[in-house]
């Protein structure tokens, strides 16, 4: 799960599953009445999981898929927190034995 919020708050503003989904081809035609984008993130992805190719960008606390992690971060900032990350200070947490190369990439 992703937990995000603002400094000074006692609890996270938002908590959502760290999951990204893309529509399966054989479901695209049956979903025309529903609004389904190319990328579905978080709880919306969990709700439509049977119609999506689901990806978990983080395994054991280590980012495995950086493109999908970017979608997770975009969802957290723009959809959940409704802030522009370029105008904020950001604190990310990672596992204590996370490789330095991955920490630098974050």
Automatic annotation (TrEMBL):
SUPFAM superfamilies: Actin-like ATPase domain. InterPro entries: Actin, ATPase_NBD. Actins are highly conserved proteins that are involved in various types of cell motility and are ubiquitously expressed in all eukaryotic cells. This is Uncharacterized protein. It comes from Oryza meyeriana var. granulata.
